[in-house]
Amino acid sequence: MDIEPDTKDWTWVLERPCPACGFDAAQVDPTAVADRVLDVLPRWRHVLGRVEARERPAPATWSPLEYACHVRDVFVVFDRRVRLMLDGDDPEFENWDQDVTAIQDDYAVQLPSEVASQLDVAGRAVAETFAAVPDDAWSRTGRRGNGSVFTVATLSTYFLHDVVHHLHDVHG
Question: For 16-36, what is each residue's pLDDT tens digit?
């Protein structure tokens, strides 16, 4: 069975806690996002080391490996978005269809050990980008094509929810 595309607008996580994973963006200091990313990297590595990392818990649910591939790509996409916000005025983000990426990159057949290394590299890179945000740049804006506007601060907590939520999904 194919995975049903996620068409939800998750920006609501900036306004209220996520009932599924418990993440509360209002409780996250954006300047701590870099450290929070570094803190979850060993947990993701552990998930990818499991014997069942390639197994889907249900036909329509990603395996831990597929979630890890997605998070690796989230690291790359959001690193690029933050850099755009720091380098330009109110940039519009390139559309990223996570479901198309999962199919095109065939997440399910990637090697867990390689994904673990890639996830670590990409996670450290995005953490470095967030750690280097100047104090006066957290209010800089950027926007998605659907009109959602973010500051660097709100993008950081929106991003962190994705990482934490998917770690929750895989019981990491």
Answer: 999 999 999 999 999 999 999
